[in-house]
Amino acid sequence: MASFSDFSEADLAALKRAKHELETPPLGMKLAAIVGAPVEKLIAKLPAVANDKVNDATQAALRKCLQLALKTLGKPGESALAAVVPAKPSNLLHKFAVATTGAAGGAFGLFALPVELPVTTTLMFRSICDIARSEGEDIANADAQLQCLTVFGMGGRSASDDEADFGYFVVRGALAQAVSKASSEMATKGFAAHGSAALLKLMQTVAARFSVQVSEQVAAKSIPAIGAVLGAMVNTVFIDHFQNVAHGHFTVRRLERRYGEAVVRAAYGEIEVSLD
């Protein structure tokens, strides 16, 4: 069993912070606090066509992120991401950009989703890559790019999750095999890997989880006359949630590179956090 004495004081504090970020309250609870209504009830009021729109928009959004990842593989100096990824993550800059797209979504509602979500998700993906690089990841590497993509699948439950034994390492483990196979294809085939069976399987797995959070976001914007201001606030909560997950995930990976996976996982399990 790992001992907290195995860690430096700074690294132990980072791990505690990471667990708080990864075991954070569900997105729906955060959105409910903003809009003043239970998100589950708002989802139930969405029109029947909303589910198809969410699924289609989610798939399109993740495809754009994957295309960006494939185009920037192995190009650390030429990467389209390089200009927006400084030494420290620009979380506020990305929040502002996503808030702007949320303002449009708040004004036009569900009709804006096919246009807004791919833009919002791409901005969020850039922010996640930004955070990954700040934690020592080489985002020109195939595995690191896919780890960024899987953050969208770590931000909450999927419709098939049961209530028992749910947590960061459970979700990460469920995604691991799909990530490994897709990473191998991306590393060997580059952009030609687009549309491969391994990448498609990973995309479907992540999309199934991410679409739940997108539905909650859409529901929060479905309140009549929500307006641009509240739409921007909803999007700010949305990106903040995934930024927290990214910070937690890539902190854990950084510590695993230093101390080993088993040591970090054991220490993570011993940490008690308040999720107020």
Automatic annotation (TrEMBL):
Domain of life from the UniProt record: Bacteria
Alphabetized InterPro entries for the sequence: EcsC
Protein name: EcsC family protein
The species this protein was found in: Paraburkholderia eburnea
